[in-house]
Amino acid sequence: MVYKMKHLLVTITIIMFTCFFFPPITGFASETALNNDYVKIGLKYGSSSVQNCTLKSSAGFMLGIADDRRFVEGMPLPAYTKLIVANENGVITARDEEGVMLSADLGSRGCIMPADYEEGGVIYYENTPYRGGIILLPNPDGTITVTNYLSLEHYVYGVLNSEMGYTNPEEALKAQAVAARSFGESSIGKHSKAGFDMCPSTCCQVYRGYSGEYPSIIRAVDETRGEMIYYDNTPITAYYFKNSGGYTQNIEDIWSSPMPYLKAVEDEYSPSYPWSASLSFDMIQTKLEAAEFQPGTIESVEINERNMTGAVSELKIKGSKAIIYLKKEKIRNILGPTIIKSLKFELKGSDSDENSSDVTISNGLFAAKPGQNTYIITGNGTIREIGSDSLHIFNGINTLKLNNILSTQMSTDGSANFNGYGYGHGVGMPQDSAIEMSKQGFTYDEILRYFYTDIEIR
Ligand SMILES: [Zn+2]
Questions:
Q1: Domain residue spans in the chain?
Q2: 207 CA from centroid of ligand 1 (Å)
């Protein structure tokens, strides 16, 4: 016993000395850190869960476990190029093409990698190629949830083209890569109840796997390898969207809680993106009912409130049974985010000539329309008449011209015609502006700093 203790002590001492005198080589250490960044992306889950599936790899397979955002190698299967996976009585089995059992239970953390996963090999899930490996979880109903397990860098390879397009200029792609990587890192565990981190759709980020990779995309990811956007030493939820229409949005004006790095920014690089849409009152009623409102027959649609950037923050819809107030992003979610492309819109009835489209100034008690004997009294007593054309709001940082955007508008004649600018929720980086800034010579970090407030990039 004493001998054993002594032996242990010697061993510990040797380990300590080894660590002390031979610190890890820097390159090796950073390599290890970057490999410790695996993410789980749901491929088939919920109603799309599968009964069984086929995995292929020309280099053979490596069975192992997904552990602490790493892959730990277990049993190599170099002689097999095709595996049939099934849920058999609540456990995941793997058989070869002839039906011979290779694993009777892959286990809850089991992961199947292509044998050459470290040399850029891919695994085919039902003929679609993916980097990293595949995790298969048995569901109580006998189906399988299929998840792709891969490094964050490889995940960003598969996201970038579907979120921005590989033909875009390099600095814009690099900005998008850093944003997508930060967004991915901050979304770890978002779908943990379903057994993975992120889904492959717009709910998280659109991910297409290896099929979505292009040389320009790989270059943009590699040139920003590991770089993320931080606030307070934490990777940020780097929201992005297509076009700002000239102003991005405070996150609290779109969803709920404020975030110090997601503030409204006046966007001088936004290419113009006009849109228009028409919704009949019948259609609006159907959409409201689908969202479990009971408005009855719609009688009027009115812009009730705008935020400081001019975006609509409340839409008032009067029906025969109830008045419905749609606030913030609910307006787009309920009426259709591809129909109402942004919250920066005007509203006109189908006979667009006569509408009350004047600016109204209100102090909470009284309202007045500029141009109708409205005056401003400055601090030193100067009185000046104002019209809607010359009305600006200044919050100490930004000035906003209010003509044409702060109108009270209502439709009463059976349909609502929307005319707006921009596309998307408006929070974070507008991709069109990132592309424009890139064309004008800005670097990816300058682009990111313009749209995300008080951030660090490293
Ligand atoms: Zn999602």
A1: 32-151, 154-269+428-457, 276-421
A2: 11
Would you place residue 352 in the very low, low, confident or very high pLDDT band (cuts 50, 70, 90)?
A: very low
Q: Tens digits of per-residue pLDDT, 267-286?
A: 999 999 999 999 999 999 99
Question: pTM for the full model?
Answer: 0.82
Ligand 1 is a single-atom ion; what residues have CB below 5 A from it?
Answer: 199, 203-204
CA of 50 from ligand 1 middle (Å) equals 19
Residue-by-residue DSSP string for 101-170: EEES---TTEEEEETTGGGT--EEETTEEESSEEEEEE-TTS-EEEEEEEEHHHHHHHHHHHHT-TTS-H
Question: What DSSP letter does each residue of 22-62 carry, written as one string?
Answer: SPPPHHHHHHHHHHS-EEEEEEE-GGG-BSEEEEE-TT-EE
Dihedral sign from CA coordinates of 170, 172, 178, 184: negative
pLDDT at position 203:
94
Backbone angles phi, psi at 33, to 5 degrees: -60, -40
Q: Which residues pair with 288 in a beta bridge?
A: none
How, if at all, do strands 399-401 and 392-394 pair? antiparallel
